[in-house]
Design goal:
By secondary structure, this protein is an alpha/beta fold. The protein has 4 domains: 160 residues, Chitobiase, domain 2, CATH 3.30.379; 324 residues, Glycosidases (TIM Barrel), CATH 3.20.20; 163 residues, Alpha-glucuronidase, C-terminal domain (Alpha-d-glucuronidase, C-terminal Domain, Alpha-Beta Complex), CATH 3.90.1330; 136 residues, Jelly Rolls, CATH 2.60.120. The strands form 7 sheets. The chain has an 8-stranded parallel barrel with strand order 7-10-11-12-13-14-15-16. Strands 2-1-3-5-4-6 form a 6-stranded mixed sheet. A 5-stranded antiparallel sheet has the order 20-23-28-25-26, with no helix packed on it. Helix 3 runs parallel beside helix 5 and helix 16 runs antiparallel to helix 19. The protein starts with a helix and ends in a 6-residue tail after the last strand. The N terminus is likely disordered. Bound molecules: alpha-D-glucopyranuronic acid (GCU). The site of alpha-D-glucopyranuronic acid has 9 residues, from loops. GO terms for molecular function: alpha-glucuronidase activity. Keywords: Carbohydrate metabolism, Glycosidase, Hydrolase, Polysaccharide degradation, Secreted, Signal, Xylan degradation.
Length: 850
């Protein structure tokens, strides 16, 4: 007991301010007592066989020194030769091959059977033996050892760890150019500008790239595509290729290979050809030469990625050539250099006629690709988004995973939270990924898990695996939010082992990121595991998709934006009914793209799970779910449940104060507090929208009834003007106020009619970029609260300049004592485009969240 008490105090008192730059590779000192107790089990001597500067074995030695010094306070002697067995405990780092040629067969019960990138790990018998199938595998094993130590795991073990798939790539949607500044923007990046590009060139200072390389290697990613899939042809100019070479030089020591996105029209845009027809001889020659040139600069380039004929990008269909003809034209010269050609399945028509009941964007991948199965060169891998639409909060798996038997596949995931709260909302993704990967497609009536289709196991391919859009930026903590980094870590874990347990992953990550305090580990795990169901509840449930504004920034709520346009993310909501009819008998036929057993399940309402009901079926709002609730009541309840669950995040996080360093604690607290308010914005916007559309009341009487709110447009306004908000449901009662253009101050005044007492005060307003309006709340002439519209300064979401669901926000202003008849006055002082916009004030009695 005394020991435990001591441990708890030691853990709490060793928190040092941190900025998140080191991610999970902090190598923070273990509590002294633990370190002392286990110091003897760490060998003082390291033997490394065959290390060369600039290659992964040398990095492994550096990491080991750094890690042992940091975690254990231990220095080691490094020798560049020798075997085991001279009595001195040794950490031996080598490739298996080098080891065998230098030291003879390994003394193991069974000789390890290593696959590409796999390693053998043995800490039994007093030595630490790490033998990789190649150099980077030895580095992976070294990171594994350090990760175990950092988590105070000193268990003596012996095992082989092989990856499930050989493609474990990151994608970056980084742009070289950015019209409004000289920095490289990141499309769907929420954490600052590009770490690679600036001013249409490769950055001269690439120090963040070297740090990033360590993080990627530690989670065993083996390649990174550095530029956007919407590729800029100028990436391939001589000057920029030289820069790509510099980037590759920084990744190489960590065994991460660089890859590039290619623009199909480059022969025209960059070269001087007047066609990019893939069957034109000059075009073929142009690409042959270009790809040779690229490999001349980066001989170990992993390969290329291409987005063709999608969302305005050029491709082979432009010339009536097939997708396979297009991909193969570039894949052939890539194959000569041993590279992989990743070809995206995200091909669809974004001008679909929404009036046609049978049109469906979800059908596109299979329609475009199924006839070309087997026509691709051997080094082509089709990269398929996990769902048929676009990284929604819930989708069934892409049907294409069941159709490409003769073509290797990779699944495309998103670490960057494009539709999932853009890192301002907590969303731990591993459970969502697991659900997709564990889905059994029943191809030919046999077990056909998505994970086995993508690893190559199900259809017998050597190639296959994972790609995730990561999009870290120049923010010190990489993804903008400290907690969002669990998704990058978790991606590495799942790409290596699709069966990795989501709770174990978050716990490991937490230990590495925040230390060993059990309370911290349990709380972060609880918050993380809550995050998907919570976000799904307050954004879009029953498979209707994330009801975000798809025409603008994909962030805040706007259910109406899904329909009546060519983008095909339709919900088909009308006054009576909602949902995409994807049945074969009456709908778009999408359900029939699944193999028979799954198709049969989704064809019928009775056998479709509630959480995918509106994905597959169009039903009246009054349709009764398996839960016994109607669709509309489920919407109302789920949105209330989700927003209420979001309120628990702050107290949970606050309970960790003092157990986590102040810097990271305060940073996350700000985001979580914001999320609690934005969850309410989401709840109300979606509920108002469907309440209005269906005309059906909430059985619990909550929707549209807010007895504790005061609409600012109903107050006596001086200098403020009433404005209609678009979309209307993102304002309480559809209106807000803004100070008149050019004014420096505006006020809104009213007399309070609430019973005397103590209330929690909050205000909903709009927080715009390019301006920090300031506000004061006066009660009977006394300032009781003040704030500035400064969320835009520290939140990472894509910005909007309008009063809408992206900018709608809540400020919690503490507690106030009021009496009936008190005067409430709000003073707003505009700044820039932010004309001190206000929606409503709310006085919350104890226990009420509204
Ligand atoms: C989404 C995303 C785009 C991206 C596209 C893609 O539509 O919003 O920014 O370019 O996917 O994956 O290619």
């Amino acid at each position: 007991m005394r020991h435990l008490l001591w441990l708890a105090t030691a853990l709490v008192s060793t928190v040092v301010a941190e900025d998140g730059l080191a991610g999970w590779l902090r190598y923070a000192p273990l509590p002294e007592k633990i370190a002392k107790c286990h110091a003897k089990s760490i060998p003082s001597q390291v033997k490394v066989l065959g290390a060369t500067d600039g290659l992964p074995l040398a990095s492994a030695v550096n990491e080991l020194k750094l890690g042992l010094r940091g975690i254990m306070g231990k220095e080691v002697d490094v020798h560049s030769e020798g075997c085991l067995g001279d009595e001195t405990p040794t950490i031996l780092l080598s490739t298996l091959e080098n080891y065998v040629s230098a030291c003879g067969e390994l003394d193991a019960d069974e000789p390890p059977s290593l696959e590409e990138d796999g390693f053998y790990f043995n800490t039994k018998d007093g030595n630490v033996v790490i033998l990789g199938s190649n150099e980077r595998a030895t580095l992976y094993g070294t990171f594994e050892y350090l990760s175990r130590l950092a988590q105070a795991n000193f268990e003596a073990v012996e095992y082989v760890d092989n990856p499930e798939a050989n493609i474990r790539w990151g994608n970056h949607w980084d742009n070289m150019d950015y019209t409004s500044s000289t920095h490289g923007s990141v499309e769907r990046g929420y954490a600052g500008v590009s770490i690679f590009f600036q001013d249409n060139k490769i950055r001269s200072d690439l120090s963040r790239v070297a740090q990033y390389a360590r993080l990627l290697a530690s989670i065993r990613l083996n390649a990174i595509v550095i530029n956007n899939v919407n590729a800029n042809p100028i990436t391939l100019t001589d000057e920029n290729l030289e820069g790509v070479g510099r980037i590759a030089d920084l990744f190489r020591p960590y065994g991460v290979q660089v890859a590039l996105s290619l623009n199909f029209a480059s022969p025209v845009e960059l070269g001087d050809l007047d066609t990019f027809d893939p069957l034109d001889e000059d075009v073929v020659r142009w690409w042959d030469d270009m790809i040779d040139t690229i490999y001349g600069v980066v001989p170990d380039l992993a390969g290329f990625l291409n987005k063709a004929n999608s969302e305005g990008q050029p491709g082979p269909l432009t010339y009536n050539r097939t997708l396979a003809e297009g991909a193969n034209m570039m894949a052939r010269p890539t194959a000569r250099h041993g590279g992989i050609f990743m070809f995206r399945a995200f091909v669809y028509d974004h001008h679909l006629d929404h009036r046609d009941w049978y049109n469906d964007r979800a059908n596109a991948a299979v329609e475009f690709f199924q006839h070309h199965d087997g026509e691709f060169e051997e080094n082509v891998v089709v990269q398929i988004k996990y769902g048929p639409i676009d990284f929604q909060v819930r989708e069934p798996p892409s049907t294409l995973f069941a159709h490409l038997r003769d073509t290797p596949m990779a699944i495309e995931l998103q670490v960057t939270q494009e539709y999932l709260g853009q890192q301002n909302h907590l969303f731990y993704l591993n459970p969502l990924w697991r659900e997709i990967l564990d889905f059994d497609l029943r191809v030919d009536g046999e077990a056909s898990y998505v994970r086995d289709a993508v690893s190559g196991k199900r259809f017998g391919h050597k190639l296959g695996g994972y790609a995730a859009v990561i999009n870290v930026g120049m923010d010190r903590n990489w993804l903008g939010s400290h907690l969002a980094m669990s998704n990058l870590y978790g991606y590495g874990r799942i790409a290596w082992d699709s069966q990795s347990d989501s709770v174990e992953v978050i716990e490991d990550w937490t230990r590495l990121t925040f230390g060993l305090d059990r309370r911290v580990i349990d709380t972060i795990a609880e918050m993380s595991m809550l995050s998907w169901p919570m976000y799904e509840n307050y954004t879009g449930n029953l498979g209707v998709q994330t009801l975000t504004d798809i025409l603008h920034t994909h962030y805040g709520p706007n259910p109406a934006s899904q329909d009546n346009n060519g983008w095909g993310q339709w919900t088909r909501a009308n006054e009576h009914s909602i949902g995409m009819d994807r049945t074969v008998w009456n709908g778009t036929g999408f359900a029939g793209q699944y193999p028979a057993e799954v198709a049969e399940q989704f064809e019928h309402i009775e056998t479709t799970p509630d959480n995918l009901l509106l994905w597959f079926h169009h039903v009246p709002y009054t349709h009764v779910l398996k839960s016994g609730n109607t669709v509309i009541q489920h919407f109302y309840d789920a949105h209330y449940d989700g927003a209420e669950a979001a309120q628990t995040l702050v107290p949970m996080w606050e309970s960790l104060k003092g157990r986590i360093d102040e810097e990271r604690h305060a940073h996350m607290l700000r985001r979580l507090v914001y999320q609690t308010g934005h969850a309410i914005v989401w709840r109300d916007a979606v509920n108002y929208f469907y309440h209005n559309l269906s005309g059906i009341e909430d059985e619990a009487g909550r929707v549209g009834s807010h007895p504790w709110r005061i609409e600012v447009e109903d107050m006596a306004l001086d200098g403020y003007e009433k404005v209609a908000v678009t979309p209307p449901s993102t304002a309480s009662r559809f209106y807000a106020v803004e100070a008149a253009p050019g004014s420096s101050e505006a006020t809104a005044t009213t007399t309070l009619g609430f019973p005397a007492g103590r209330y929690r005060l909050a205000v909903n307003y709009y927080d715009l970029p390019d301006g920090q309006a300031s506000y004061e709340v006066h009660i009977n002439g006394e300032v009781v609260a003040a704030w500035e519209g400064d969320y835009d300064l520290y939140l990472g979401n894509s910005k909007s300049e309008f009063l809408d669901g992206h900018t709608a926000a809540r400020r919690w202003l503490g507690e106030v004592d009021i009496a009936e008849g008190d005067e409430l006055k709000i003073v707003g002082r505009p700044d820039g485009i932010e004309r001190a916009p206000l929606d409503y004030v709310v006085f919350l009695p104890e226990g009420v969240v509204d």
